[in-house]
Structure formats: C-alpha cells, structure tokens
Design brief:
It is built from 12 helices and 14 strands. By secondary structure, it is of the alpha/beta class. Among the domains are: about 30-120, OB fold (Dihydrolipoamide Acetyltransferase, E2P) (Beta Barrel); about 145-280, Rossmann fold (3-Layer(aba) Sandwich), CATH 3.40.50; about 415-450, no CATH class. The longest helix is centred in the last third of the chain and has 43 residues, at about 365-405.
C-alpha cells in the first residue's frame, strides 16, 4: 500500500514479505508488535476515568479488572507494587480515576491499561480510606467506651512517643516541667509521618510496654494535612494501640484534626499541650487538693468520733448488771421448771384416768370365757340339730329312691309269674337267638332250672 507505515522492528527474521503488486504482507505477530509500538510509544502516561467491574485480586497480589462507562470498556491491570499504596477498598461499581499507560498483550492481540495510581471519584482516596477503616473498627467495637480505661489520677512515669525535633514535644516537656517537675518523662523518638512511619511508631509503642512502672503512654504530633497525619490512621498501628496494656493518650494534630488513633486510645487530647496539662497536675492544684482533702478528713473524723461516743452512751444505758441478769435467769429457770412439773403431772393424771375408763369398759376374762363357753354349747346343739335334720332328709330321699328302684326291679316282674331265660349269661329275647347245642337257664321268682333243648320251633 502507498501509505504503508514503516516502523523499525527488533526482529526481522520472521518477516514474511511477498511482493504482490508492491504489497507487503505481515504476519499476525508482526501486526500486533507494530500496534504495541504505536500505542505504547504515543501513550506513555494517561489519566482515565471509569467504573470498576469484574474486579479480581489474584493470589499473586496483582489486581485485574475492567474500566467502563456507559458505552465502552477496557481491561486494566494494577500490579502489586502499585496497588499496595491504595488506602481504600476496591469493589465493583466504584468510580475511580486512574493514571497509567497503554500496553498490548501480543499473544492475544489485546490491549489494556497498566494502572500506576488510583483514587476514587468524588472524594479523596485518603478520606475515603479513613471513613472505611473508621466504620470497620467501630463495627468491631474498638471505639466502645466500655473497653477504655481511666487514666491514673497521679501518674509518676510518662512515656511520650513523638519526633524529637518537633515543636509538639518541646511544648509538652515545657508544660510538664512547669506544672509537675517531679514527673518522670521518657521520650521515645520516632518518625511521625511519611513512608515507614507506622512501623516506627509501632516499634516505639512496643518498646514503651517493656519499660517498668509506666503509668501513661502519650502519642504526640503537631498539626498537618491528612497526608501528614496518615501514619496514625494505619490499621496495624491502630489495632496495636487498642491492645496496649498501659493507658494511652492520643494527642495528634490540632483540635480540629482527627485520626483513627484518637478513637481507639483510652483518651483523646485536642493537642499535645492539652495532653501535658492532663497528665501533669500543677503543684498548686495538688496543694489545694490536699488541703481540701485534709479539711474534709478532719470533719469526717470528728463526726465519726461523735457518732462513736453517742453509740457507746446508748450501749452503756442499755447494759444490764451481769449479777442481776443471772438472778433474773435463775428465777425464770425456776418458773419454767415448775411449769414443766405441773404439765407432766397433769399429763400423767389425764392418762391414768383414760386407763381407768378403758379398764372399766373391758370385761373380766372369766366372764368372757363363760360367755364364750355358753355360745359354743349353743352352737354345738344347733350343729347337732342341723346334722340330724340333714340326715333325716337324706334317709327319706334314699328310701324314696329305693322304692322307685324296687318297683322297676326285674325281681318284681318275676313275682308276677314271669321268668328270665339266659344262655351263657346272655338274655334270650326270641327263639332265633337260641343255640340248640347249649343248655338254657330259666330263672324264676324263687329258684332257677337248667334245661336242654330237644326241639326248636321258630316263628
């Protein structure tokens, strides 16, 4: 093509050039490389505004996401070295402003923006990070007043963590020296702003914990912008302050400045100077306080002694002579003994009368035996009479039944002239039953005969 763009290439060994009517044919790799050099050469650094979508934090520490607006989108990458500086939480739907450069990924022929800086649109990044961390820690209960401790009323040793060259520490020491020169103040110098400041403050805080007899730890720093005070918004430092075994005062910035450390510390002082006045009670104030307490204590002692005297007088009036008390108790004992004896006597008489009544109601044994003997005799006679009556009835029944049996007895039939014919104990009813060869027995009313059969007639 007449208007073909000519760009020097680092590797020309793979160029496939076929001369067909003066047209140069490129490989896909060559085309992607030329596009890469064009885009990366002309767009070294750009600012881009868009909404985050498809956000993914890779295990490698890199961020992969897309930036989109109403009509288009572009892939974006933010490597670990850059995203570690972000102070707010990234999520889908967040509108951000990024600074970066365009890059082409040749194997896929796709282009993307490599982000080097990011901040949310509509609010500064630091302020948004501040609010997010504040809400997170508040939800965890680190700001609750119930977990905060009261400062010692009269501390002896104070540890101040601050920059040794700042005006804040100078004001602090001047006020403490003037108000309470007897206080032991220990300064642990540290960075209070910039890169590495949170780690240095954490080291100083842990060093303060290892010191003996420390009553209060003060974190002090003068005023500044939110960037200058940002070290005291570091989540690691804030959580460490919340774990402090020693009561802490956060005296960071001016009165209008707030940091997360202010919310987790046991007490917030508007300024380092105010913190010095809180921990260092003036000698005059202490003298007045002691004088007032001494006067109040004397009044209490006098009132207490007066109360004791009054109570002792009341007890003296109520106190009884021990000998009289013993006499009264002796008389009371005699009265109770008499009442006991009378009660026992009355009880004895009552039971004796009851026994006499029961004895009278109970008959003599001889009488009871005679009555029992008479009763047995009567019962014996009744039994004999009943037995005789039953015997007579049984005899009458037997005679009646014997008469019935006798009336139907075969012997009665024989008395009327009949006889019984048998052959070998078998009663013969007809001539057909007779065995001619055997004799017949005929039984009469009186006696019996045995006959031989000479002729048998049937029919």
């Amino acid at each position: 093509m007449a208007n073909d763009i000519s760009i020097p290439l680092n590797n020309t060994s793979n160029i496939v050039q076929t001369q067909q009517n003066d047209v140069t044919v490129l490989s896909v790799e060559q085309l992607n490389m030329r596009i890469k050099q064009l885009l990366e050469g002309q767009m070294i650094s750009i600012w881009l505004r868009g909404e985050i979508s498809n956000f993914k934090a890779h295990t490698s520490g890199h961020f992969y996401f897309s930036l989109k607006d109403a009509k288009s989108q572009i892939s974006a990458v933010m490597f670990r070295g850059f995203n570690s500086k972000i102070k707010f939480k990234i999520h889908d739907g967040l509108e951000v402003l990024v600074k970066g450069r365009i890059s082409v990924y040749e194997p896929r022929g796709s282009y993307q923006i490599l982000c080097e800086h990011m901040e949310p649109v509509g609010a500064g990044a630091l302020q948004k990070a501040f609010e997010e961390l504040k809400s997170k820690l508040k939800a965890e209960g680190l700001f609750e007043s119930a977990r905060k401790r009261a400062l010692p009323l009269h501390p002896n040793r104070i540890v101040v963590i601050s920059s040794p060259t700042g005006a804040a520490i100078q004001d602090f020491i001047q006020i403490v020296t003037r108000r309470a020169p007897f206080l032991d103040v220990i300064l642990i110098p540290t960075l209070v702003q910039g890169d590495g400041a949170p780690e240095k403050i954490m080291e100083a805080l842990q060093m303060a914990w290892r010191l003996k007899d420390v009553d209060i730890i003060v974190l002090a720093r003068g005023g500044g912008s939110i960037e200058d005070l940002w070290a005291f918004n570091d989540e690691r430092l804030v959580r460490l302050i919340a774990q402090s075994p020693v009561p802490t005062i956060s005296a960071v910035g001016h009165e209008i400045d707030f940091t997360i450390s202010d919310f987790v510390a046991d007490l917030r002082a508007p300024t380092p100077s105010a913190a010095a006045e809180l921990v260092a009670k003036s000698s005059k104030e202490l003298g007045q306080r002691l004088s007032h307490l001494s006067h109040f204590l004397n009044i209490l002692f006098e009132k207490k002694i007066k109360d004791f005297k009054s109570r002792m007088e009341n007890m003296r009036l109520r106190l009884i002579d021990p000998q009289k008390k013993l006499q009264d108790l002796s008389i009371r004992n005699d009265e109770l003994l008499n009442r006991l004896q009378e009660s026992m006597k009355a009880n004895f008489l009552k039971h004796r009368h009851k026994i006499e009544v029961l004895s009278q109601r109970m008959p003599q044994p001889q009488v009871r035996m005679e009555m029992a003997r008479t009763k047995v005799n009567h019962r014996t006679k009744d039994l004999h009479a009943a037995m005789q009556k039953n015997l007579d009835l049984a005899r009458h029944k037997l005679e009646s039944r014997m008469a019935v049996l006798d009336s139907i007895s075969p012997l009665k039939v024989l008395d009327r002239g009949y006889s019984i014919v048998t052959q070998e104990t078998k009663i013969i009813h007809s001539a057909d039953e007779v065995d001619v060869a055997k004799p017949l027995n005929i039984k009469f009313c009186k006696g019996a005969v045995e006959i031989k059969i000479s002729e048998l007639k049937k029919g």
